[in-house]
Amino acid sequence: MQTLSWADIDLSAIAYNFDIIKQSSPNQKTIAVIKANGYGHGALEIAKTIKADAFGVARIHEAKLLRDKGIQTPIIVMSELLAEDQLTECEQLRLEPVIHSAFALNNLKHFRPRTNRPFRCWLKVDSGMHRLGLNSEQLDTAKCVFEAHPNLHLVGLITHLASAEKIGDPKNTMQANAFKQLAAKFEGVDISIANSAATLFHPDLRGEWLRLGISLYGINPAHQSNTVTENLKPAMTVRSRIIDIKDIPQGDRVGYNGIWQATRSSRIAIIGIGYADGYPRHAKNGTPVLINGERFPLSGRVSMDMISVDITDASKPLKVGDVATLWGEGLDAEEVAQSCGTIAYELFTSAGQRVTKIYR
Ligand SMILES: Cc1ncc(COP(=O)(O)O)c(C=O)c1O
């Protein structure tokens, strides 16, 4: 049964975005980042659609779901705890853990692979973001661990930029230089620096492996554009329906705490999506909602199951059952996100269980 709110997921848009980005970086291998259920778009469906060199997830259970459904592509587990038993699970599922902490490194040191197959691992380097990653001394230890265990295979070195979307920010080059200096300890090993923003706007920082997330889903992560970002197609369009329409007199207020007041006689549409569906509760009055190709302002606080929109200026009469677009085709998710004090990443990953995904 179709739910009141739904997300149309355009897999061909994801495939298209993947292709145009790859064409712009033809010499790099690609990790398609499909953690958090493919940023809310459906990790399995994406894994079946695009031919990435590897997929990136955050947790082992995300990778297991893919393996259980027959996905054979290499899967990199980027931010797990990596306790001893989890390393065993990674080996069993042929996952490639990113060793990012002293704890994980110590577990790897004592880990004995059960098969003769090389156990493929990555090392994360802290080049200045100070979130995950090993420092210089820990990298020396890691080097000894890999040298001592011939069954361990170091696939690559990863670092993450703190401000990649700020194009031209000298901190990006500083981080990349610090990373390259540390990576030099591991001669001939592949490196990976670039997320979407670095891939699209810092060609010098790409390394051998790209890690593409938000751009696959059609979002330009930066505040400037280029020929690739101008052609990205949105892959998720969240829609719902008008469940009631009412006329209110000038001066009346709408919704919880009456944070919106009618400055004229107004017509209000109630739309069946709320914060329990993933529409952000912090959306400001005026956040755009698209109905019949026209933009209308959010009017009043977002409730758990519904929002209210001022449709007084509709050029054609609207009725109960009409479809509203909350973000996606025709309404840039990043614009909506900004009006909600957040980013498109959060909109996408918040689209909840009550929002059915419809693939096309
Ligand atoms: C380690 C790592 N690499 C790559 C990505 C992909 O970043 P983006 O979605 O900005 O392309 C992420 C996303 O958060 C990440 O955590």
Report on the architecture of this protein.
The mean pLDDT is 97. The chain folds into 2 domains: 11-219, Alpha-Beta Barrel (TIM Barrel), CATH 3.20.20; 236-359, Lyase, Ornithine Decarboxylase, Chain A, domain 1 (Beta Barrel), CATH 2.40.37.10. The strands form 3 sheets. Strands 1, 10, 13, 14, 15, 16, 17 and 18 form an 8-stranded mixed beta sheet that branches. The protein has an 8-stranded parallel beta sheet with strand order 8-7-6-5-4-3-2-9. The relative contact order is 0.14. It has 12 helices and 18 strands. The radius of gyration is 23 Å and the shape is elongated. It starts with a strand and ends with a strand. The protein has helices spanning 11-24, 35-39, 43-49, 60-68, 84-92, 102-109, 136-148, 170-183, 196-201, 227-230, 333-339, 344-350, and strands at 5-9, 29-33, 54-57, 75-77, 95-99, 119-124, 152-158, 190-192, 209-212, 236-248, 253-254, 260-261, 266-271, 288-291, 294-297, 307-310, 323-327, 355-359. The protein binds pyridoxal-5'-phosphate. Residues 33, 78, 160, 195-197, 211-215, 221 line the site of pyridoxal-5'-phosphate (PLP). InterPro entries: Ala_racemase (IPR000821), Ala_racemase/Decarboxylase_C (IPR009006), Ala_racemase_C (IPR011079), Ala_racemase_N (IPR001608), Ala_racemase_pyridoxalP-BS (IPR020622), PLP-binding_barrel (IPR029066). This is Alanine racemase. Residues 235-360 form the Alanine racemase C-terminal domain. Pathway: Amino-acid biosynthesis; D-alanine biosynthesis; D-alanine from L-alanine: step 1/1.
